[in-house]
Specification:
By secondary structure, the chain is mostly helical. The chain has a domain of about 40 residues. Helices cover about 70% and strands about 0% of the residues. The chain is built from 31 helices and two strands. The protein has a two-stranded antiparallel ribbon. Strand 1 and strand 2 form a beta hairpin. The longest helix has 20 residues.
């Protein structure tokens, strides 16, 4: 009796490579891709157009900057490209207009201008580069359109915020699939038109998990967690994305108990957080300050990537634990620009200006090129430390040394610092001369500094500028009223108070909140509805007496 054949214990390297090559275009692991590419060269199969096309696709998926150089070598070696090559290549350069135009010229010159696959890729690439008009031109020139062509155009219009035009194209479609419905639904969600989004959602013939996830996301963004949860509970099939949307929605609203409870249910359903879900929930914790939930997510991480480390640095920094953020930063083996930016901003945010500037110097020493976001953190650090001359130097270095054009946020940081330090006229003149229209935040910072430094004349000019913006804020009126009172200009104070009453009516109550044992407590001025209000007020009174006693000593 013959024994059954056993599977071979050894597979040839050639057979293993063939298996890898068959799925090469799906490869998303950069390290594996580099190894496969070296094997392709060693076996001299790098001239095969099918292999080259798959290589370009893989580099696109891995976000590695070698797809264009691979294409260039292909041209030099006289390897003929096909329509799939150009489709994969275009996917690599979403957002890079110049390279998309170069590829488009190749397509036209080599006779692929009538290929529907290439045209669909061009529509997407131009729209992602912010060139809606060029995307529309390609669509209009496409003679034989398929459903992907129409979907690409709807997606391009949605991406540009042209939801009305997207709806028109959608209505003109000769046929639709679920992608068509979902793209238009996504458009209404992005512009916040949830009434139309819900109406469209109800019309979708065969809703899939993307349809449900999109409508749930829309209500989470709107802050209507009750409707979001109702829709979430109605879903027949949920995936990790849907769970993440709901948990992040609760976290962003500061609803720690609900977020933790849903996280428990997700784990009971057999789902584990992947890197994308982890980053999404950590970002929501950072926005609302939910340190407890953020720590729980941190404890669940099994494999730390640079992106997850960055999200943790940002979360701990925004939740006030800059020491833990620093530990994670130092433990991050492969740091990218976001790692440095998050840590510099975190230090600056919590008053550690000197450490933030030292870290910036270390960043320069390690040959990391800063960007505009880096310099916002640097200028904020200077503001916290009152370093006027250093801030002027960094502001100048942005353009001179790094070629970064200052944005309104950079001007705002410098103006705020100058105003705080009493250099009021320089701050005012900079606001008037900068290439942007000063906003209410910039004028408000100068006005507040006028109160501190008792500059009534400049305060009146600033109030005039604020009135031109037609943006009334009770805080600004209160500041100018107090400035008049300090200078014993009672007529001016009375006019400011009258203006505040006429323009604003009842002043909105200020509020603050804190997290305690995974519960967020909100307090508003004059509100005694909290169940522990009496005990809290007694403790505040005791603290006030204690502080007064310390000051007297």
């Amino acid at each position: 009796m013959t024994s059954p054949l056993r599977p071979p214990q050894f597979k040839s390297h050639r057979r293993l490579l063939e298996q890898k090559l068959s799925d090469l275009h799906k490869c998303s692991d950069p390290n594996s891709l580099v190894q496969i590419h070296s094997q392709i060269f060693r076996l001299c199969i790098h001239r095969d157009p099918i292999v080259v096309s798959k290589l370009i696709s893989a580099y696109s998926l891995c976000r590695l900057p070698f797809s264009f150089s691979t294409f260039s070598r292909m041209q030099v070696s006289a390897i003929k490209a096909d329509s799939f090559t150009y489709s994969f290549l275009l996917r690599s350069f979403h957002g890079h207009l110049r390279r998309v135009e170069v590829i488009h010229s190749h397509v036209f010159r080599l006779g692929f201008s009538g290929d529907v696959f290439v045209h669909n890729s061009l529509i997407c690439s131009y729209s992602r580069a912010g060139e809606l008009a060029l995307a529309r031109k390609v669509f209009d020139e496409t003679v034989l359109r398929d459903v992907v062509s129409w979907n690409s155009m709807v997606g391009a219009l949605v991406r540009a915020g042209e939801i009305g035009d997207a709806r028109k194209v959608f209505e003109e479609m000769p046929e639709r699939n679920i992608v068509s419905w979902n793209r238009l639904l996504d458009g209404y969600v992005k512009v916040g038109d949830m009434d139309t989004a819900l109406d469209l959602f109800q019309r979708i013939p065969d809703k899939n998990v993307v349809s449900w996830s999109t409508i749930v996301l829309g209500y989470c963004k709107k802050g209507d967690m009750e409707t979001a949860k109702m829709l979430f509970d109605k879903m027949g099939l949920r995936n990790l994305v849907t769970w993440t949307i709901m948990i992040s929605g609760y976290a962003e609203k500061g609803l720690a108990v609900e977020a933790s409870t849903l996280l428990n249910k997700m784990e009971e359903a057999g789902f584990e957080l992947d890197p994308s879900a982890t980053i999404s929930i950590l970002a929501a914790c950072a926005e609302s300050g939910l340190l407890g939930l953020g720590k729980r997510i941190h404890a669940s991480v099994k494999r730390f990537t640079t992106q997850i480390s960055n999200a943790l640095i940002d979360m701990y920094s925004k939740c006030g634990d800059s020491d833990e953020a620093w530990i994670i930063f130092e433990e991050t083996i492969v740091k990218d620009l976001m790692s440095w930016n998050s840590m510099i901003h975190g230090l600056a945010m919590h008053g550690h200006g000197e450490r933030a500037l030292d870290l910036f110097a270390r960043m320069e020493g390690e040959d990391f090129m800063p960007d505009g976001i880096t310099f916002i953190g640097v200028l904020c650090a200077c503001t916290h430390m009152g370093l006027v001359n250093e801030a002027r130097r960094y502001f100048s270095a942005m353009q001179k040394d790094y070629g970064i054009t200052p944005k309104i946020e950079h001007y705002g940081c410098l103006i705020d610092l100058l105003a705080r330090r009493g250099v009021l006229m320089e701050a005012y003149n900079l606001a008037k001369m900068m290439p942007f229209e000063p906003n209410v935040v910039i004028w408000g910072s100068i006005l507040n500094a006028c109160r501190v430094h008792d500059n009534v004349g400049l305060a009146e000019k600033v109030v005039d500028e604020l009135m031109k913006l037609k943006l009334s804020d009770e805080g600004n009126f209160a500041i100018i009223s107090n400035i008049y009172a300090s200078a014993a200009k009672w007529d001016g104070m009375a006019k400011a108070r009258l203006k505040m009453r006429d323009d604003l009516g009842q002043k909105r109550a200020g509020s603050s909140w804190l997290e305690l044992d995974d519960v967020v407590h909100e307090f508003t001025v004059g509100d005694r509805m909290h169940p522990q209000a009496d005990r809290i007020l007694r403790m505040v009174s005791r603290l006030g007496k204690h502080i007064k006693q310390l000051c007297e000593e």
